[in-house]
Amino acid sequence: MQSKRMVALAIALALVFVLVVVPTLAEAQVPGTRNLRQGDRGPDVTEVQRRLLRWGYYFGPISSLFGAQTLAAVQFFQRRNGLPITGIVGPLTFAALGIRAPRAVPAPDRTAAVTPQGGVDRNGMHLLARAVYGEARGEPFEGQVAVAAVILNRLRSQKFPNTISAVIYQPLAFTAVADGQFYLTPGSEAYRAAQLAVNGWDPSGGALYYFNPRTATSAWIWTRPYIKTIGRHRFLR
Amino acid sequence: MRRAVWVAGMLAVVVVAASLYWGFSQTRVKNQLLTRLENTYQRAFHDLAFNLSAIDAELAKAAVAGTEEQAMIRLAAVWRQAYVAQTNLGQVPLGVANLENTELFLARIGDAVFSIASRGTLPTAEDRQVLSMLRTQARDMANTVATVQATVLRDNMRWTDLEIRTLNDRAPRDSQVLGKFRALEDQVQQFPEITFGEHVNVARPAPLAVTAESVSAGVAEKTARDFLRHLGADLRLVSQVEVVEAELPHFSFVFAHPVDANRHTTIEVVRNGGRVFQMFSEREPRAAVIEVGVAEQRAKLFLAERNLMNLELLGVEIGGNTAIFTFCYTEDGILFYPDLLRVRVALDNGEVLSYEGNGFVMYHRERGNFVGQMGIAQAKAGLNPDLLVNGVQRVIIFDRQGREVLCYEFAVQRGTEKFLIFINATTGREENIVRLVEYPQPMIPAGIFRP
């Protein structure tokens, strides 16, 4: 019991250290090490402006001064990215801008490197999200991730075409593509599901097929090995 | 009165004429579009037939090539034709299930010739045996498709007809084309398995760590409840399934939240060894108020409480009021990339929403010591001299054959582009190059996890 308490104390101390001491030790000019608000100056402001400019949120000069235009751009960025609209560039906004405090998160970010699926670029994400939305909107969230995972499993499998578009547009492969629901604009949930699947989450258990037993008409689909049911979809090998 | 009848009659004639005209023009437009669609299908199919006969021809030439240069050129041609054939096959409306084995066979041809060609030497006796076997099979396949092609041309067969009937599930059982492709699937499946020896890409290494004895459903449920102790002690079991056919056979449990009975948490426990490999709690997080640093601590605490230690944070992604932290196992300063796990934390109250430990469960185990014979300086000498090296560390990755190898991971830069380059610490081979793409754009995962 005593030792447990010691461990808890140690964890708490470590937490205090990481959250309070480390940030103040860090140099203020390195992007991500201090919060930025109107009136601030420095190379970190420049970096924020540069990123906001590149992504089309900021139209003013790259001046290293956090002025009114920068404030408006930061608020615009926060609104668009679902962040609290404070006008202050804090840890959340820095992270969303892709700026990491040197201590908080190690650099370089190697998530990309260790993520299992390849072959999905920015526009591939749009295609994937559309497929998820067209095929599985209204399904439980993990059911949507599972549909995206099936598409990625096909991409990875040698039994299917080699690119994300070839998998999605394969004739007779997906009903949403055949009947045009694929062209609806996907919601943010579909994007999140697609992103999670790209990052390696596969709730389908490695499925290559799925179908809705209430609407499916093909007989062959029942002959494939069954994995599991999520929402209205049965997932198969 | 008479005049009114006359006017009405004229009007009726005009309406009928106009709708006839409209109907005809609609039909014409529809037929034009159908013909264009038909043309793309025909193009894909005839291209496919050409690709197959080209594979046969180039394999034949590779077999008689006497110099490395010619052998390489011919094998590269086979590789290219096999790739295009796969794409074309994927565009023919035959239904995905009717093409699986054929696609697989084309991929195998590509893999085999690529691995032989990538050594840059003349094919060995063993390679020649593989190539001649592949050639026999490729020729069979090319012949079958050529007879289908003859049928299609002779009978003016339309792929769009077949597609429309399949969509309405009135697939003609007597369709010669469909029948021949199904026969091709069976034929390909009966091809004897070719062992490519050392040099073939492994789709995904076998789950090396999942070898222990099976656990019972009762034990698995206990493990699951223990893992979910952050939700409280009195979770109600909603459903329980044993999933046998998955890559990892497992038990899947759904629990209801003690306070909100409509909120479900799914948790899956691998049957062999009884470790939890994924958990997801269905809840939509409200606006983010917690900082990422705090969420990171929550994630680490969550893992430590479940005896998951020695983990290095590789990266974090933020979106939808959640933060996803990716970790891998580390020991003696070596990062074990195969042993991967992810924790998703809600940024409204810091609750851990999901856990995904596929990689960790599949590959984390007691391993022997990895000792590289090369020093850093020696490995660095193998790098392209134009690169600026920002850092180096020791990591374990899968090589192209799916074996775990110790590598030096060099974080390098060329201009503004950043890469990770993996040099095998034993052989000095450059195992992989991964391009790093900046967050928060959707990532382009190049995948060192995959061999």
Summary keywords:
heterodimer; A: 237 residues; mainly alpha; Muramoyl-pentapeptide Carboxypeptidase, domain 1; Arc Repressor Mutant, subunit A; 2 domains; 3-stranded antiparallel β-sheet; 10 helices; 3 strands; 47% helix; elongated; B: 451 residues; alpha+beta; 3 domains; 12-stranded mixed β-sheet; disordered C terminus
**Spatial separation of the terminal alpha carbons of chain A:** 49 Å
Oligomer: heterodimer
Number of strands of chain A: 3
**Percentage beta strand of chain B:** 15-25%
Number of domains of chain B: 3
Query: Which structural class matches the secondary elements of chain A?
Result: mainly alpha
Question: What's the β-strand tally of chain B?
Answer: 12
Largest interface: A-B, 74 and 90 residues
What's the overall average pLDDT of chain B, rounded?
A: 85
What's the architecture of the largest domain in chain A in CATH terms?
Answer: Orthogonal Bundle
- Ranges of chain A where pLDDT stays below 50 over 5 or more residues in a row are 17-28, 102-117
Describe this structure in words.
The complex is a heterodimer of chains A (237) and B (451). Chain A is mainly α. Chain A folds into 2 domains: 27-108, Muramoyl-pentapeptide Carboxypeptidase, domain 1, CATH 1.10.101; 122-236, Orthogonal Bundle (Arc Repressor Mutant, subunit A). Chain A has helices at residues 2-25, 43-54, 68-80, 91-96, 111-114, 122-136, 141-156, 164-168, 175-179, 188-198, and strands at 209-211, 226-230, 233-236. In chain A, strands 1-3-2 form a 3-stranded antiparallel β-sheet, with helices on one face. In chain A, strand 2 and strand 3 (233-236) form a beta hairpin. In chain A, helix 6 crosses helix 10 (188-198) and helix 7 (141-156) crosses helix 10. Chain A is elongated and about 70 Å long. Residues 17-28 and 102-117 of chain A have low confidence and may be disordered. By secondary structure, chain B is α+β, with helices and mostly antiparallel strands. Chain B has 3 domains: 13-189; 217-363, no CATH class; 376-436. Chain B is built from 10 helices and 12 strands. In chain B, strands 1, 2, 3, 4, 5, 6, 7, 8, 9, 10, 11 and 12 form a 12-stranded mixed β-sheet that branches. In chain B, a hairpin with a 5-residue loop joins strand 3 (264-270) and strand 4. In chain B, helix 4 (125-155) runs antiparallel to helix 6. Chain B is extended.
